[in-house]
From TrEMBL:
It is found in: Periplasm. The keyword Disulfide bond applies. Residues 1-25 form the signal peptide. It comes from Novosphingobium mangrovi. The lineage of its organism: Bacteria, Pseudomonadati, Pseudomonadota, Alphaproteobacteria, Sphingomonadales. Pfam families: PQQ (PF01011). Keywords: Disulfide bond, Metal-binding, Oxidoreductase, Periplasm, PQQ, Signal. Belongs to the bacterial PQQ dehydrogenase family. Residues 47-360, 481-545 form the Pyrrolo-quinoline quinone repeat domain. Its cofactor is pyrroloquinoline quinone. This is Methanol/ethanol family PQQ-dependent dehydrogenase. SUPFAM superfamilies: Quinoprotein alcohol dehydrogenase-like (SSF50998). It comes from the Bacteria.
């Protein structure tokens, strides 16, 4: 097998009163306050994740488990052209317009009633871009008269939402060093908050906050120990402590890309960002815990200062990025109401933390097997490592001992966002059961080149499925139900007050399930694999559902032996919109 590099990018709970009518659009567009209220406003979708907590829960129930079987398409709008790869975006909906990003750094505006294209913007990408994991983009952000998205050459672009004309265009990092950007921006307090991609190239993960009106940098926080943060152009303290968990100069090319973006909790004023794998993959070359890679960080939104961290995979040797979304939720644990957050990690464990301080409260396996560790120590917060589960050190020029590891580096859950239902109290996790043969190789850092030091082959571990949508109780760690899918799941999840859970499959279906039982209630064939995130909103007194269709992302690029489960899937680029017939 060729040596390859990879990495795989690629409701405010208290708000119970829903806006009954579609939101009245203000000529000036949504404010930061409107974005904070997105989970409680039914007539639009203003943010990635449908609110700062990104629970992907809608309080709408006109469409429900009793009538969803009647759901029909309203229209399908094509992204056109030859660029039909990896449509991982989540739509935004505002003022009768649906905004969606497409592969190859494109942004589209469609009429929400007819599907007619209003405008299209295509970024001019240089020839030398280095996206590790397909040419995807996961969505845009809206604020005032601007719609903002990130591009594969590590830029952030603000367009006029009515015309598609550029308002500002800022470079966030150097694509020639291996940086890129694929995540949907997060808007907090009139700042655009973004991460970076490129963990396979020895980059340094960072979070940036920029002025939403000008694009100028407000603060930056590198996430690898030893690097300096900035605030308003001045130094703002070192991240961690120099050489505390990295030897020599290894921190300078330490990885930790923040490639999925973050969530925000207005109550604590904390941004929650996951960080990617350390570089290189070969863990024998970088002794120590390698902070703050494969972690969740809580960052002060005003200053960029790290308030707490929790590392899910210290001294990661499997590319188990800790980048997955950390979703705030409120629940009673052991008789006490608590401010919590949950994360289904690449490493196969589902973590529940106190979101105010990062204290670990629960960690449960949500996949079939974890060969690298046999549980998480709740006292120390650290994994119980299985020694023989770590790939061996290279012997001179020879590769090290090959080990079988599960999950594979594509993760028990990769980028695709889970959802939390305030009704059932369950998290709905799009997960995958697979493993890999992995081995380490000698490697040296070279600017702009792959910095891996490992090889791998992905393998199935079950006869009947790879993908599994799992409903997990965060209080007990029990899996309440699961739906198994032949091909890997690679799309986001939506849940609603109508007792519904929606997600897509590579086989081309958008599916709806009973949120309590997991019974499949409806499916629709979109013509290509669904790897986007569905949304729902109310328009003209009716409830609508929308999703992107278009197969791609990391799986077809790096699928190894599991590729045969999806070898016949057509590529595509379509926005599908559904509602109940009148």
């Amino acid at each position: 097998m060729k040596r390859r590099f990879s990495h795989f990018l690629a409701g405010l709970a208290a708000a119970t009163a829903l806006v009954a009518a579609p939101a009245l659009a203000d000529h000036h567009g949504p404010t930061s306050s409107d974005l904070m209220n997105d989970a409680a406003s039914a007539g639009d979708v203003l943010s990635y994740g449908m609110g700062p907590w990104q629970q992907r829960f809608s309080g709408l129930d006109a469409l429900n488990s009793d009538n969803v079987s009647k759901l029909v398409p309203v229209f399908a709008a094509s992204l056109g052209g030859e660029k039909q790869r990896g449509q991982e975006a989540q739509p935004l909906v505002y003022d009768g317009t649906i905004y969606v990003t497409g592969s190859y750094s494109r942004l589209f505006a469609f009429d929400a009633r007819t599907g007619e294209k209003k405008w299209e913007y295509t970024a001019r990408l240089p020839d030398g871009i280095m996206p590790c994991c397909d040419v995807v983009n996961r969505g845009a952000a809206i604020h005032g008269e601007k719609i903002i998205f990130a591009t594969l050459d590590a830029r952030l672009i603000a367009l006029n939402r009515e015309t598609g004309k550029v308002i500002w265009n800022k470079k966030t990092a150097d694509y020639q060093e291996g940086y890129s950007a694929t995540a949907a921006p997060l808007i907090v307090k009139d700042m655009v908050i973004t991460g970076n991609s490129g963990g396979e190239f020895g980059v340094v993960g960072a979070v940036q906050a920029r002025n939403v009106d000008t694009g100028e940098l407000v603060w930056e926080r590198p996430v690898i120990e030893g690097h300096m943060g900035t605030l308003n152009g001045a130094p703002n303290g070192m991240t961690g402590k120099l050489n505390a968990t990295w030897e020599g100069d290894l921190w300078k090319t330490g990885g930790g890309a923040t490639w999925l973006g973050g969530t925000y909790d207005p109550g604590t004023n904390l941004l929650y960002f996951g960080t990617g794998n350390p570089a290189p993959w070969n863990s024998h070359l970088r002794p120590g815990d390698n902070l703050y890679t494969s972690s969740t960080l809580a960052i002060d939104a005003d200053t960029g200062v790290i308030k707490w961290h929790y590392q899910t995979t210290p001294h990661d040797g499997w590319d188990f990025d800790g980048v997955n979304e950390f979703i705030p939720f409120d629940a009673t644990m052991n008789g006490k109401p608590m401010k919590l957050g949950a994360k289904a990690d690449r490493n196969g464990y589902f973590y529940v933390l106190d979101r105010t301080n990062g204290k670990l409260l629960g960690a449960h396996k949500f996949v079939m097997q974890t060969t690298w560790a046999d549980g998480i120590n709740l006292k120390t917060g650290r994994p119980n490592y299985i020694g023989e589960g770590r790939p061996g050190a290279p012997n001179g020029a020879e590769k090290g001992k090959v080990v079988f590891s599960s999950p594979s580096f594509l993760g028990g859950k990769n980028w695709m966002p889970m959802a939390y239902s305030q009704d059932t109290g369950l998290f709905y996790i799009p997960s995958n059961d697979w493993g890999m043969d992995i081995w380490n190789e000698p490697i040296a850092y070279k600017k702009g080149a792959a910095y891996l030091g490992a090889g791998f082959t992905i393998k199935p571990i079950a006869d009947d499925h790879i993908g599994a949508l799992r409903a997990m109780d965060p209080k007990t760690g029990k899996i309440v139900w699961e739906y198994k899918n032949a091909a890997p799941l690679w799309g986001g999840v939506l849940t609603t007050k109508g007792n519904l859970v929606f997600t897509g499959t590579p086989e081309g279906y958008l599916k709806a399930f009973d949120a309590k039982t997991g019974t499949e209630l409806w499916k629709f064939q979109t013509g290509s694999g669904v790897v986007g995130s569905p949304v729902t909103w109310e328009q003209d007194g009716e409830q609508y559902v929308a999703v992107m269709s278009g197969w791609g992302g990391a799986v077809p690029l790096w699928g190894g032996e599991v590729a045969k489960t999806f070898k016949d899937i057509s590529q595509g680029g379509m926005l599908w919109v559904f509602k109940l017939p009148k």
